Amino acid sequence: MIKSIFCEMAGIEYPIIQGAMAWIADSSLAAAVSNAGGLGIIAGANAPVDYIRDEIRKTKQLTDKPFGVNIMLLSDNAEEIAKMVCEEGVKVVTTGAGNPGKYVEMWKSHGIKVIPVVASVALAKRMERSGVDAVIAEGCESGGHVGELTTMTLVPQVVDAVSIPVIAAGGVGDGRGIAAAFMLGAVGVQVGTRFLVADECTVHENYKEKVIKAKDIDSVVTGRPTGHPVRVLRNKLTRQFQILEKEGAEVDKYEELGRGALPKAVKDGDINMGSIMAGQIAGLVCKKQNCKDMIKEMFTQADKTLEKVNSL
Ligand SMILES: Cc1cc2nc3c(=O)[nH]c(=O)nc-3n(C[C@H](O)[C@H](O)[C@H](O)COP(=O)(O)O)c2cc1C
User: Mean pLDDT, the chain, as a whole number?
Assistant: First the structure.
Protein backbone atom coordinates (compact mmCIF):
# COMPACT_ATOMS: atom_id res chain seq x y z
CA MET A 1 0.00 0.00 0.00
CA ILE A 2 1.33 3.46 -0.91
CA LYS A 3 2.71 5.25 2.14
CA SER A 4 4.72 8.43 2.26
CA ILE A 5 6.32 10.89 4.62
CA PHE A 6 3.03 12.77 4.55
CA CYS A 7 1.38 9.88 6.43
CA GLU A 8 3.88 10.30 9.26
CA MET A 9 3.61 14.08 9.19
CA ALA A 10 -0.18 14.09 9.47
CA GLY A 11 -0.56 10.89 11.54
CA ILE A 12 -2.74 9.21 8.89
CA GLU A 13 -2.86 5.83 7.14
CA TYR A 14 -3.45 6.85 3.51
CA PRO A 15 -1.75 9.93 2.00
CA ILE A 16 -5.02 11.63 1.06
CA ILE A 17 -6.58 14.89 2.17
CA GLN A 18 -10.29 15.48 1.67
CA GLY A 19 -10.31 18.95 0.13
CA ALA A 20 -12.14 21.70 1.95
CA MET A 21 -15.45 22.47 0.28
CA ALA A 22 -17.19 25.67 1.28
CA TRP A 23 -20.71 25.11 2.69
CA ILE A 24 -20.21 21.34 2.28
CA ALA A 25 -17.21 19.92 4.17
CA ASP A 26 -18.57 19.68 7.71
CA SER A 27 -18.00 17.39 10.69
CA SER A 28 -19.87 14.52 9.02
CA LEU A 29 -17.56 14.33 6.00
CA ALA A 30 -14.35 15.29 7.80
CA ALA A 31 -14.82 12.67 10.55
CA ALA A 32 -15.74 9.95 8.02
CA VAL A 33 -12.60 10.62 5.97
CA SER A 34 -10.40 10.67 9.06
CA ASN A 35 -11.99 7.47 10.37
CA ALA A 36 -11.29 5.89 6.96
CA GLY A 37 -7.57 6.69 7.33
CA GLY A 38 -7.35 9.93 5.33
CA LEU A 39 -7.20 13.50 6.57
CA GLY A 40 -10.67 15.05 6.87
CA ILE A 41 -10.95 18.82 6.57
CA ILE A 42 -13.69 21.15 7.82
CA ALA A 43 -14.23 24.08 5.46
CA GLY A 44 -14.14 27.44 7.21
CA ALA A 45 -15.22 29.47 4.15
CA ASN A 46 -17.30 32.48 5.24
CA ALA A 47 -18.99 30.70 8.13
CA PRO A 48 -19.29 32.34 11.57
CA VAL A 49 -16.51 31.43 14.01
CA ASP A 50 -18.91 29.78 16.46
CA TYR A 51 -20.30 27.52 13.74
CA ILE A 52 -16.78 26.33 12.85
CA ARG A 53 -15.91 25.86 16.53
CA ASP A 54 -19.01 23.65 16.91
CA GLU A 55 -18.06 21.63 13.84
CA ILE A 56 -14.57 21.09 15.28
CA ARG A 57 -16.07 19.87 18.56
CA LYS A 58 -18.55 17.60 16.75
CA THR A 59 -15.71 16.13 14.68
CA LYS A 60 -13.78 15.37 17.87
CA GLN A 61 -16.80 13.42 19.12
CA LEU A 62 -17.02 11.46 15.87
CA THR A 63 -13.34 10.56 15.53
CA ASP A 64 -10.18 10.33 17.58
CA LYS A 65 -8.09 10.59 14.40
CA PRO A 66 -6.37 13.77 13.18
CA PHE A 67 -8.38 16.21 11.07
CA GLY A 68 -7.90 19.77 9.89
CA VAL A 69 -9.62 23.09 9.22
CA ASN A 70 -9.39 25.12 6.02
CA ILE A 71 -9.26 28.88 6.30
CA MET A 72 -10.21 31.01 3.32
CA LEU A 73 -7.90 33.97 3.77
CA LEU A 74 -10.22 36.30 1.85
CA SER A 75 -13.06 35.83 4.33
CA ASP A 76 -13.79 38.72 6.70
CA ASN A 77 -13.26 36.63 9.83
CA ALA A 78 -10.09 34.81 8.72
CA GLU A 79 -8.10 36.30 11.59
CA GLU A 80 -10.65 35.21 14.20
CA ILE A 81 -10.73 31.67 12.79
CA ALA A 82 -6.93 31.63 12.67
CA LYS A 83 -6.85 32.26 16.44
CA MET A 84 -9.76 29.95 17.27
CA VAL A 85 -8.10 26.88 15.70
CA CYS A 86 -5.22 27.38 18.17
CA GLU A 87 -7.63 27.43 21.12
CA GLU A 88 -9.41 24.29 19.88
CA GLY A 89 -6.22 22.25 19.46
CA VAL A 90 -6.71 21.61 15.74
CA LYS A 91 -3.83 19.52 14.32
CA VAL A 92 -3.71 20.72 10.71
CA VAL A 93 -4.63 23.95 8.94
CA THR A 94 -4.94 24.25 5.17
CA THR A 95 -5.48 27.65 3.59
CA GLY A 96 -7.02 28.88 0.37
CA ALA A 97 -7.18 32.20 -1.49
CA GLY A 98 -3.91 33.82 -0.61
CA ASN A 99 -0.84 33.98 1.57
CA PRO A 100 -1.20 32.89 5.23
CA GLY A 101 2.35 34.08 6.06
CA LYS A 102 1.32 36.36 8.94
CA TYR A 103 -0.32 33.48 10.88
CA VAL A 104 2.34 30.81 10.38
CA GLU A 105 4.38 31.60 13.51
CA MET A 106 1.28 31.55 15.74
CA TRP A 107 0.08 28.22 14.28
CA LYS A 108 3.52 26.63 14.53
CA SER A 109 3.82 27.70 18.17
CA HIS A 110 0.60 25.73 18.81
CA GLY A 111 2.01 22.62 17.10
CA ILE A 112 -0.29 22.97 14.08
CA LYS A 113 0.86 21.57 10.74
CA VAL A 114 0.35 24.30 8.13
CA ILE A 115 -0.40 23.31 4.54
CA PRO A 116 -1.40 26.14 2.17
CA VAL A 117 -2.93 25.60 -1.26
CA VAL A 118 -0.79 27.13 -4.01
CA ALA A 119 -1.40 27.60 -7.71
CA SER A 120 2.10 28.80 -8.68
CA VAL A 121 5.78 28.09 -8.06
CA ALA A 122 6.30 31.64 -6.75
CA LEU A 123 3.71 31.24 -3.98
CA ALA A 124 5.03 27.76 -3.11
CA LYS A 125 8.54 29.20 -2.62
CA ARG A 126 7.22 32.09 -0.54
CA MET A 127 5.28 29.65 1.61
CA GLU A 128 8.35 27.47 2.14
CA ARG A 129 10.30 30.55 3.28
CA SER A 130 7.55 31.42 5.76
CA GLY A 131 8.01 28.02 7.44
CA VAL A 132 4.97 25.96 6.38
CA ASP A 133 5.14 22.14 6.61
CA ALA A 134 3.96 21.23 3.11
CA VAL A 135 2.08 22.75 0.18
CA ILE A 136 -0.91 21.58 -1.82
CA ALA A 137 -0.26 22.31 -5.51
CA GLU A 138 -3.70 22.66 -7.04
CA GLY A 139 -4.25 22.60 -10.78
CA CYS A 140 -7.12 24.28 -12.62
CA GLU A 141 -8.91 20.98 -13.28
CA SER A 142 -10.19 21.24 -9.73
CA GLY A 143 -13.63 22.31 -8.60
CA GLY A 144 -14.03 25.70 -6.92
CA HIS A 145 -11.61 28.64 -7.24
CA VAL A 146 -8.91 27.93 -9.79
CA GLY A 147 -5.55 29.22 -10.98
CA GLU A 148 -4.12 28.98 -14.50
CA LEU A 149 -1.86 25.91 -14.52
CA THR A 150 -2.91 22.29 -14.82
CA THR A 151 -2.00 19.71 -12.18
CA MET A 152 0.26 17.90 -14.70
CA THR A 153 2.38 21.03 -15.23
CA LEU A 154 2.18 22.63 -11.78
CA VAL A 155 3.05 19.68 -9.54
CA PRO A 156 6.50 18.77 -10.96
CA GLN A 157 7.49 22.43 -11.14
CA VAL A 158 6.55 22.97 -7.49
CA VAL A 159 8.29 19.70 -6.53
CA ASP A 160 11.50 20.97 -8.17
CA ALA A 161 11.22 24.41 -6.56
CA VAL A 162 10.74 23.49 -2.89
CA SER A 163 12.16 20.92 -0.50
CA ILE A 164 9.04 20.52 1.67
CA PRO A 165 6.46 17.81 0.81
CA VAL A 166 4.07 18.56 -2.06
CA ILE A 167 0.49 17.28 -2.19
CA ALA A 168 -1.21 17.22 -5.62
CA ALA A 169 -4.77 18.48 -6.08
CA GLY A 170 -7.04 18.92 -9.06
CA GLY A 171 -8.34 16.11 -11.23
CA VAL A 172 -7.52 13.19 -8.95
CA GLY A 173 -10.56 10.93 -8.84
CA ASP A 174 -9.27 7.38 -8.66
CA GLY A 175 -6.18 5.23 -8.11
CA ARG A 176 -4.72 6.08 -11.51
CA GLY A 177 -4.80 9.76 -10.56
CA ILE A 178 -3.09 8.97 -7.26
CA ALA A 179 -0.38 6.94 -9.01
CA ALA A 180 0.13 9.75 -11.52
CA ALA A 181 0.46 12.33 -8.74
CA PHE A 182 3.19 10.24 -7.11
CA MET A 183 4.93 9.91 -10.50
CA LEU A 184 5.02 13.71 -10.66
CA GLY A 185 6.80 13.82 -7.31
CA ALA A 186 3.87 14.44 -4.97
CA VAL A 187 3.75 12.57 -1.64
CA GLY A 188 -0.01 12.77 -1.29
CA VAL A 189 -3.21 13.90 -2.98
CA GLN A 190 -6.07 16.21 -2.12
CA VAL A 191 -9.45 15.18 -3.51
CA GLY A 192 -12.61 17.28 -3.53
CA THR A 193 -15.02 16.38 -6.34
CA ARG A 194 -15.15 12.62 -5.68
CA PHE A 195 -15.94 13.18 -2.00
CA LEU A 196 -19.02 15.21 -3.02
CA VAL A 197 -20.84 11.93 -3.63
CA ALA A 198 -19.68 10.19 -0.45
CA ASP A 199 -22.54 8.85 1.69
CA GLU A 200 -21.33 10.98 4.60
CA CYS A 201 -21.26 14.18 2.50
CA THR A 202 -24.28 16.27 3.49
CA VAL A 203 -24.61 18.19 0.21
CA HIS A 204 -28.12 18.08 -1.34
CA GLU A 205 -28.97 14.87 -3.27
CA ASN A 206 -29.66 16.93 -6.44
CA TYR A 207 -26.06 18.17 -6.29
CA LYS A 208 -24.76 14.59 -5.96
CA GLU A 209 -26.90 13.43 -8.91
CA LYS A 210 -25.61 16.30 -11.05
CA VAL A 211 -22.00 15.27 -10.30
CA ILE A 212 -22.73 11.62 -11.05
CA LYS A 213 -24.41 12.48 -14.36
CA ALA A 214 -21.69 14.94 -15.43
CA LYS A 215 -19.66 14.12 -18.54
CA ASP A 216 -16.03 15.05 -19.21
CA ILE A 217 -16.88 18.42 -20.77
CA ASP A 218 -19.59 19.46 -18.33
CA SER A 219 -17.54 21.82 -16.18
CA VAL A 220 -16.78 25.42 -17.08
CA VAL A 221 -14.87 28.27 -15.50
CA THR A 222 -16.96 31.35 -14.77
CA GLY A 223 -16.10 34.76 -13.36
CA ARG A 224 -12.68 35.27 -14.99
CA PRO A 225 -13.23 39.05 -15.36
CA THR A 226 -13.71 39.34 -11.57
CA GLY A 227 -10.22 37.98 -10.91
CA HIS A 228 -11.74 35.04 -8.97
CA PRO A 229 -12.50 32.34 -11.55
CA VAL A 230 -14.49 29.35 -10.32
CA ARG A 231 -14.94 25.89 -11.88
CA VAL A 232 -18.55 24.71 -11.75
CA LEU A 233 -20.87 22.38 -13.64
CA ARG A 234 -22.79 23.90 -16.54
CA ASN A 235 -26.36 25.02 -15.90
CA LYS A 236 -28.67 28.00 -16.38
CA LEU A 237 -26.53 30.08 -14.00
CA THR A 238 -23.30 29.46 -15.96
CA ARG A 239 -25.07 30.41 -19.19
CA GLN A 240 -26.05 33.72 -17.59
CA PHE A 241 -22.44 34.27 -16.49
CA GLN A 242 -21.34 33.62 -20.07
CA ILE A 243 -23.78 36.27 -21.34
CA LEU A 244 -22.27 38.79 -18.89
CA GLU A 245 -18.81 37.94 -20.22
CA LYS A 246 -19.91 38.46 -23.83
CA GLU A 247 -21.48 41.80 -22.89
CA GLY A 248 -18.29 42.89 -21.07
CA ALA A 249 -20.38 43.55 -17.94
CA GLU A 250 -19.04 45.33 -14.85
CA VAL A 251 -17.77 43.20 -11.95
CA ASP A 252 -20.74 44.11 -9.71
CA LYS A 253 -23.09 42.37 -12.18
CA TYR A 254 -21.19 39.09 -11.61
CA GLU A 255 -21.36 39.59 -7.86
CA GLU A 256 -25.10 40.20 -8.04
CA LEU A 257 -25.68 37.06 -10.11
CA GLY A 258 -23.41 34.89 -7.96
CA ARG A 259 -24.64 36.09 -4.55
CA GLY A 260 -25.89 33.15 -2.48
CA ALA A 261 -25.58 30.79 -5.46
CA LEU A 262 -23.47 28.15 -3.67
CA PRO A 263 -25.84 27.58 -0.70
CA LYS A 264 -28.72 27.61 -3.20
CA ALA A 265 -27.24 24.48 -4.79
CA VAL A 266 -25.75 22.91 -1.64
CA LYS A 267 -28.67 23.37 0.75
CA ASP A 268 -31.77 23.92 -1.45
CA GLY A 269 -30.72 21.58 -4.27
CA ASP A 270 -31.36 24.26 -6.91
CA ILE A 271 -29.30 22.86 -9.76
CA ASN A 272 -30.50 25.45 -12.27
CA MET A 273 -29.59 28.72 -10.60
CA GLY A 274 -27.28 27.36 -7.88
CA SER A 275 -23.51 27.20 -8.22
CA ILE A 276 -22.50 23.55 -8.57
CA MET A 277 -18.78 23.70 -7.88
CA ALA A 278 -17.08 20.54 -9.15
CA GLY A 279 -13.97 19.66 -11.11
CA GLN A 280 -13.28 18.20 -14.55
CA ILE A 281 -12.94 14.75 -12.99
CA ALA A 282 -16.71 14.75 -12.29
CA GLY A 283 -17.04 12.81 -15.56
CA LEU A 284 -15.26 9.89 -13.89
CA VAL A 285 -17.29 9.97 -10.69
CA CYS A 286 -20.13 7.54 -11.22
CA LYS A 287 -21.19 6.01 -7.89
CA LYS A 288 -22.00 6.89 -4.32
CA GLN A 289 -19.96 5.09 -1.67
CA ASN A 290 -19.02 5.53 1.93
CA CYS A 291 -15.66 7.19 2.57
CA LYS A 292 -14.05 3.98 3.80
CA ASP A 293 -14.85 2.02 0.62
CA MET A 294 -14.02 5.01 -1.57
CA ILE A 295 -10.55 5.52 -0.10
CA LYS A 296 -9.76 1.81 0.01
CA GLU A 297 -10.82 1.38 -3.63
CA MET A 298 -8.71 4.34 -4.75
CA PHE A 299 -5.55 3.13 -3.02
CA THR A 300 -5.98 -0.50 -4.10
CA GLN A 301 -6.22 0.74 -7.69
CA ALA A 302 -3.19 3.02 -7.18
CA ASP A 303 -1.11 0.04 -6.06
CA LYS A 304 -2.24 -2.05 -9.04
CA THR A 305 -1.50 0.82 -11.41
CA LEU A 306 2.03 1.22 -10.10
CA GLU A 307 2.62 -2.56 -10.28
CA LYS A 308 1.47 -2.50 -13.91
CA VAL A 309 3.83 0.38 -14.68
CA ASN A 310 6.71 -1.51 -13.09
CA SER A 311 6.03 -4.54 -15.27
CA LEU A 312 5.99 -2.63 -18.55
C1 LIG B 1 -17.63 22.36 -3.99
C2 LIG B 1 -16.19 22.74 -3.76
C3 LIG B 1 -15.90 23.73 -2.82
C4 LIG B 1 -14.55 24.07 -2.55
N5 LIG B 1 -14.28 24.97 -1.56
C6 LIG B 1 -12.99 25.18 -1.19
C7 LIG B 1 -12.69 25.98 -0.04
O8 LIG B 1 -13.59 26.48 0.66
N9 LIG B 1 -11.38 26.16 0.27
C10 LIG B 1 -10.35 25.60 -0.46
O11 LIG B 1 -9.16 25.82 -0.12
N12 LIG B 1 -10.62 24.82 -1.54
C13 LIG B 1 -11.90 24.58 -1.89
N14 LIG B 1 -12.18 23.73 -2.94
C15 LIG B 1 -11.06 22.97 -3.58
C16 LIG B 1 -10.90 21.59 -2.90
O17 LIG B 1 -10.50 21.73 -1.58
C18 LIG B 1 -9.88 20.69 -3.63
O19 LIG B 1 -8.59 21.25 -3.64
C20 LIG B 1 -10.29 20.40 -5.07
O21 LIG B 1 -11.64 20.04 -5.11
C22 LIG B 1 -9.43 19.29 -5.65
O23 LIG B 1 -9.72 19.06 -6.99
P24 LIG B 1 -10.91 18.09 -7.53
O25 LIG B 1 -12.14 18.91 -7.42
O26 LIG B 1 -10.53 17.84 -8.93
O27 LIG B 1 -10.91 16.89 -6.66
C28 LIG B 1 -13.50 23.42 -3.26
C29 LIG B 1 -13.83 22.44 -4.22
C30 LIG B 1 -15.14 22.09 -4.47
C31 LIG B 1 -15.44 21.01 -5.47
Answer: 96
